[in-house]
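Lecture 7 notes: from sequence to structure.
We start with the chain below.
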Amino acid sequence: MGVSLFGLVVVFWAASQMVPAQSAVFEATRLEGTANPDLNGIWQALNTANWNIEPHAARAGLATVDGPTGEVPAAAVLALGAIAAVPGGSGVVEGGAIPYQTWALEQRQENRANVLTRDPEVKCFMPGVPRATYMPYPFQIVQSTNKILVVYEFASASRTIHLDTVGPSPVNAWMGHSVGRWEGDTLVVDVTDQVEDTWFDRAGNFHSDELKVTERYTPMTPDHLQYEAIIEDPNVFTRPWTISMPLYRHKEANAQLTEFKCVEFVEELVYGHLRKEQLVRRWEGDLGLLGQRLIIDVTRTLPDELR
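Predicted structure tokens for the same chain:
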């Protein structure tokens, strides 16, 4: 008795539905001589969290003023045009909003209005944790059995994650004090003793010196880590809150960190007033027929208390 083509299709389809789904479980490569995942490599976050860790729309610039139909770039960034604009993003804060105390929310708004003079990134200060993780620069993990060195491109910052027993940090530091442990395949790092001078982003989100960050690095694929950080600071926030994001491994053949010691690039900004002759005085550019010419004069003045 013959079997039609249609009948064969039906039989094969029915058989396929009876086969249980096979879900592939990722098994991370182990660091030689240990049972722990090998996290060695150059990694980078691909998001807009360094502009603002909360959900945000695109803006005309980091610094803006009110225009007739909305925000327009402030004078300090006007000549940069679209280069100075802020890209929008869905944010990395779980739940969307940071749970600030009332006074702290007001402080954040003041920080945001003065970002060009207050954001520590502008002055090339070391970014602290967790901000160093999601700045738009790669970072490298160098892992051994009892120490993990994390080297960041921005400002040549670095920190050591201690997997062995160490004493408390003697002082607060820009990159804090990191003590790690393994929970299964997840590296858990408690970061304490950070200075209060770092921010979370370019949007004025800040903390005090009571900040504690609990990081979790979990391998998801050979080239993808899931990063999570629980933020605690009873001086600034009403409760702990969490950020999370994927980190991706650089795969190019010549992947490496390049030097970005930006301190020397901000010497004129920070210390230019100490020169006998001010170097940066005036910028004049032709924006084309419709934009005409733009002239920016730079004048330095001392605060009244220093005169």
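Points to note: The mean pLDDT is 91. The domain at 41-47+93-263 is CATH 2.40.128.20 (Lipocalin).
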